[in-house]
TrEMBL record:
Family matches, as Pfam families: PRC (PF05239)
Organism: Clostridium carboxidivorans P7
Taxonomic path: Bacteria, Bacillati, Bacillota, Clostridia, Eubacteriales
Protein name, entry field: PRC-barrel domain-containing protein
Gene3D superfamilies, sorted: PRC-barrel domain
Residue stretches making up the PRC-barrel domain: 2-66, 75-124
Amino acid sequence: MYRSKDFTLMDVINVNGKKLGFINDLLVDFYMKKIIGFSIAPYGLLKKTLNVLIEDVVSFNSVMVITKTTSADFLQFKSIKDMDVRDEKGNILGMVEDIIFDKMSFKISSLVVSMGFITNFLSGKKIILIKDILIGEESLLFNGRSENLSFCSLPHKLFTEDDLNEKS
């Protein structure tokens, strides 16, 4: 699984070796529940932001190599990042912090929701499945039906004892 931070600030070059800029955001399609490309911030001051679609990416590791760019407009992850996530009763569950998607298909699997620094430290961040999210203009609606299942991300080292060997 990838997160948005795995691609942010990655250098982008074309197949001829020309440096185009760096990735500053992900392009998302919530209808298809998929990452469809990347937004590229150019190195020059007066140049326009470019977009590259997944099908135009040749390879990526520490540098992304692409065949072509487009100037079409797409929904960017930064437009939903820091949006409130609310339940069906209107209660705020937290704010969108990150997005998690599949390495091969780029299908979005879930969103990481932050509930504040202290709550994150004590009980972890929430992981909300994308199938339970509806996007709105000002917030995201969580319509999860399962009360028995709750995903969260906890700091691993804080909750393990030093003397225990997990592999034995």
